[in-house]
Amino acid sequence: MTQIVGTYLSYRQAARIKSISYQIVVWATLLTLMVPIIWLVIGAFSGLEALLSGNISRIFSSITLEPIRQVFFASNFFTYYRNSLVVAAGVVVFTVVASTLAGYGLTRVQFRGKKWLARLILFGYMFPPLLLSLPMYQIWRELGLLNSLFGLVIAEASVPLPFGIWTMWLFFQTVPLDYEESVWMAGGSRWHSFKDVALPQAAPGMIAVGIFAFQSAWNNYTYPKVLISEDALRPLTTGITQYAVQNYVFWNQVMAIAFTIVIPAFLMVYFLQKYLLEGYKATA
Amino acid sequence: MSSATDYVSSLVPRRWTRTTNSYLGDLFENEYALLVVCLGPALALFFLVAILPMAWAFNLSLYEVSTLNPVWTWVGPGRFVDILTSSGFQNAFVRSLVFGFGSVAIQLVLGVGLALLVNKDFRGDVLARALALLPYMVPAVVIGMVGQFMLNAQYGIVNLALLRVGLLDQPVAFLGLPETAMATIMVVASWKFAVFVTLLTLARLQSIPDHFYEGATMCGANAWQKFRDVTLPRIQNVILIAALLRTLWMFNKFDIIYIMTRGGPGQTTTTIPLLAYEIAFNQYELGQAAAIAALMFVFLALWSVLYFRVARPEEEVRVA
Q1: Is A66 in contact with A55 (CB distance < 8 Å)?
Q2: Which residues of chain A make contact with B318, given a CB cutoff of 8 A?
Q3: How many degrees, rounded to 5, is the angle at CA B249 between CA B137 and CA B95?
Q4: Among A15, A121, B53, B135, which is least packed, fewest CB within 10 Å?
Q5: In this prediction, what percent of chain B has a pLDDT beyond 70?
Q6: How crowded is residue B227: how many other Cβ atoms within 10 Å of its Cβ?
Q7: A166/B contact by beta carbon, under 8 A
Q8: How many angstroms separate the Cα of A284 from the Cα of each of A105, A154, A211, A278, B203?
């Protein structure tokens, strides 16, 4: 192809045409895949009547901030948002700390039964949240953890934890033991070598685990659905459905809430995709 | 090497000597204490949210327990026979298989294709990758609701577009018809979860060194040959792992199906998790729901054995 074209165009021009046509294919594909998101954004800024008329030009001429305003002044929106943020923060902190410690312990300490422990942790991948949440509902009731954000954090932290431990385990293996040993020889303790040598080296892994934990908690629907029945404690995911059930015709407002949920997710992948890929690179 | 050692030594101030350790430092000194400190939090959580609920479910599955009645009545293992032979369970199981394998097939094609597409370096590649990864980050609730909105028979954009193009002559309630509901949910769910395959594949693709492709080019390989001989051998393992994990997870998918159809119309999208939810929270039969959960754990354990046999994930972290 390039040879035939090359007789008419310089190599540089041919390469340029090839690159541009490649980019057209990429962006056309992505644009097609983004149709639901685009439609969500349009819905979040449209008048309800225009939206339900299905007339595209009417929808575009009705563009307004009204749905966003209505959602912001709805009584529960900020409560749901705050609950989601509190739970996500709790899950991120617990997951990052627990998996970093576990990853370090599993790499640096030799003990019997390590292989079985590894399998047990991997087995954590396999637990279906809904089926675990049914018995958990009973246990949480006995423990008084139903309708508590703390109880929700504990439940939701179980989802990203196996991946977190796995990632940190792999990351600490890439930190040579020599570095830590030289700290010990210089008179530092194990705690110091962990804190000042191993930990900074494993930081990209911790960021990847943190992102994963955030998105897992931010997305979780099943555990709040089963474990939270008090409206003031609902996170956004179950809160939004509550909203839609009450006012199921107000699609523009539902899309406006959805829009506010998608924004943090988009910012996260845009700015942190490098770390996200790194984390998956380690586990792949 | 020595420069790295020097650098590390320079990090150690005089006061860090073994005689001035903190309490935490002391814990890190002892191998057993270190193990407890490190693995304690993870294992405690693991016990509370996985082992205990599983044991609880297995125990509960042998009793008749209603949320409305606190008395537990012994039923015994015969309950499992009843469930396994009931048409409700069997149909839900088949639906789970259809949903699981069907949607994973779509996800593999879509996910790997997308990964190959955005792997190259080009102008705007960061934005392109962020967009490609976005569906996975968007909560299933949002996707379910946008799906409902777009697929609505009266004002849904999908119907309007298909009518305009002429592929339909009257609006179709995709989620409301027994014939189309399952297929529609499969497509919507695949849109979101294909990105997991993309993530894994993309991560592996990015670790293939460029000189492999340069070498192949110099040997005169065309694009297809490069894909077959350089790319495919390096990603086939990751695709297998993704397929096994995704099948497992799709089999247990609850949120997206529940939001879009609640298991309907009729029972046509009631997979196992929806059946268990329905029995626990609408029929208040916790014992029976626990029995279904217990059966699923057994099934998942078998699937996991396959996963460990085929994918050998623990060999990835050379367990010493």
Answers
A1: no
A2: 173
A3: 120
A4: A15
A5: 87
A6: 14
A7: yes
A8: 21, 27, 17, 10, 7
Instruction: Tell me which residue in B42, B134, B252 faces A266 most closely, judged by beta carbons.
Output: B134
Contact call for A120 and B46, based on CB within 8 A: yes
A168 interfacial to chain B (CB closer than 8 Å): no
Q: What is the pLDDT along chain A (284 residues), one digit of tens a residue?
A: 455 554 667 778 888 888 888 888 889 988 988 889 998 888 888 887 787 777 778 888 888 888 888 888 876 888 998 999 999 999 999 999 999 999 888 888 888 888 788 777 777 777 778 878 888 888 898 899 999 999 999 999 988 998 899 888 888 888 888 878 887 777 777 788 888 888 888 888 898 899 889 988 988 988 998 899 888 899 988 888 776 655 556 788 888 888 888 888 888 878 877 777 776 666 65
* Cβ–Cβ < 8 Å for A252, A67: yes
Residue B21: is its pLDDT beyond 80? no
DSSP letter at B49 equals I
Task: Report the distance separating Cα B129 and Cα B199, nearest Å.
Answer: 10
State which residue of chain B sits closest to A38, comparing Cα positions. Answer: B146
Most A CBs within 10 Å: which of B317, B318, B319, as the mutation test of the A interface?
A: B317
Distance CA A266, CA A263 (A): 5
| Helices vs strands, H then E, count in chain B | 17, 2
B155 and A53 in contact by Cβ < 8 A? Answer: yes
Kindly report, residue by residue over B255-288, the tens digit of the pLDDT. Answer: 899 988 888 788 888 999 999 888 888 888 888 8
pLDDT of B20 higher than 50: no
A23 closest CB neighbour out of B28, B46, B123: B123
Between positions 265 and 294 of B, the ones with CB within 8 A of A are 273, 276-277, 280-281, 286, 289-290, 292-293
Question: Where does residue B286 fall: left (phi above 0), alpha (psi -120 to 50 degrees), or beta otherwise?
Answer: alpha
Closest by Cβ to A265, choosing from B18, B122, B134? B134
In single-letter form, the type of residue at position A249 comes to V
Contact, B177 vs B265, CB < 8 A?
A: yes
Question: How is A196-237 classified by DSSP, letter by letter?
Answer: IIIHHHTHHHHHHHHHHHHHHHHH--HHHHHH---GGG--HH
User: What number of other Cβ atoms are within 10 A of residue A267's Cβ?
Assistant: 12
In angstroms, how far is CA A157 from the centroid of its own chain?
12
> Which residues of chain B are within 8 Å of residue A236 when distances are taken between CB atoms?
139
Q: Which residues contact A283 (CB under 8 A, 6 or more apart)?
A: A163, A166, A167, A170, B316
> Does the distance separating the beta carbons of A136 and B137 come in below 8 Å?
no
**B115 in contact with chain A, both atoms CB, cutoff 8 A:** no
Close Cβ partners of B113 (under 8 Å, ≥ 6 residues apart): none
ipTM for this prediction: 0.81
Residues of A in contact with B202 (CB under 8 A): 277, 280
Check residue A248 and give its pLDDT.
Answer: 56
pLDDT of A8: 66
